[in-house]
Design a protein that fits this description.
By secondary structure, this protein is an alpha+beta fold. The chain folds into 2 domains: 7-93, no CATH class; 106-304, Homing endonucleases (Endonuclease I-creI). It is 42% helix and 14% strand. The protein has a 4-stranded antiparallel sheet with strand order 1-2-4-3. The protein has a 4-stranded antiparallel sheet with strand order 5-6-8-7. Helix 5 (69-75) packs across helix 6 (83-93), helix 8 runs parallel beside helix 10 (192-201) and helix 8 (112-123) packs parallel to helix 12 (220-230).
Length: 306
């Protein structure tokens, strides 16, 4: 239960080394506003002289003592909104920090395997979703969505990225019109690696397109994920199709050259409606493709192999 201190009690606290947060807690208050108003009403002196911290002091508070800008502002005697001064000092000193939600997870790097899967699924069904910041400074999270038939495959992806996912509950979209099964989705947290992946995989207009820089990050595991996401097998003729119609013709041709030069697999562009094209691997080459990606395909997706 909170209680109001006397003038002399509050004066003694103000002249001590206690922070405003500690003074408020002493009298049972959850925030400091009431006691600050009482101090002003009683014309009490400032709790302590406010001094601009040096770069060394501020670095120590941020990185060694792991204090937030709010805690630093309170410790230095700033009033309400003083945290903005701390942010300004950090910008002035060139001190970068992240105390947003999940900042500790965000400091963990993506493993090489996780990176390979990211670049593979971005060729397919995955996309990078902006989470905050202005249009020129977004942070990005990886968003993944599959239908009911591929729910086990989505669970495989969730297990691969579980250290960057804060909930294991899928978002379920049950469409209300006939003929559509539910879809299931999850997202990772935003992460510096995903910001890097956005710069590699997305053009200036915000649209994904295949580039040489992107293909340099592609491995057999990446190709397997791409195929599981957006590939299909004609069981009768043993031809493979990669649904690349969302990419530019130039990007698709880069991918065809990449498959030939890196793995000796010849592919061609197959015309589709509305002037679109996809990548087709004919039966004479599809065995090479299956041998390449097969070891990376989980059992739940084995129906795409032959």
């Amino acid at each position: 239960m909170s209680k109001c201190p006397s003038r002399d009690q509050l004066l003694q606290d103000i002249l001590s080394e206690l922070s405003w947060a500690e003074i408020a807690e002493k009298y049972g208050y959850t925030d400091t506003r009431f006691l600050r108003k009482k101090a002003k009403q009683w014309n009490l002196p400032p709790r302590r002289k406010i001094l601009k911290p040096s770069k060394e002091t501020l670095s120590d508070m941020l990185f060694s003592r792991h204090m937030t800008p709010y805690q630093i502002a309170d410790a230095l005697g700033y009033g309400e909104g003083g945290w903005s001064n701390i942010y300004a000092y950090c910008r002035e000193y060139g001190l970068d920090f992240d105390f947003s939600r999940n900042h500790e997870i965000r400091a963990v790097p993506f493993t090489p395997r996780q990176q390979e899967i990211v670049f593979g699924t971005l060729l397919g069904d995955g996309y990078l979703r902006p989470t905050n910041g202005n249009a020129e400074n977004h942070s990005y999270a990886l968003a993944l969505c599959h239908g009911e038939k591929q729910l086990e495959y989505l669970k495989w992806k969730l297990n691969e990225f579980e250290n960057f996912v804060t909930t294991r509950n899928f978002q379920i979209n049950t469409r209300q019109f006939r003929g559509n099964a539910p879809t299931y989705a999850f997202s990772t947290i935003s992460h510096p690696f995903l910001n890097e992946a956005y710069r590699i995989c997305y053009c200036a207009n915000g649209k994904k397109d295949i580039s040489t820089q992107w293909l340099e990050r592609i491995t057999p595991l990446s190709l397997a994920v791409w195929y599981m996401d957006d590939g299909s097998l004609n069981q009768r003729y043993h031809t493979v199709v990669l649904c690349t119609n969302s990419f530019s013709r130039e990007g698709q041709l880069l991918a065809i050259d990449f498959l030939k030069d890196r793995y000796g697999i010849q592919a061609v562009l197959e015309p589709r409606r509305n002037g679109q094209t996809v990548i087709r691997i004919n039966a004479s080459q599809s065995r090479k493709w299956m041998d390449l990606i097969g070891p990376h395909v989980p059992s739940c997706m084995s129906y795409k192999l032959w």
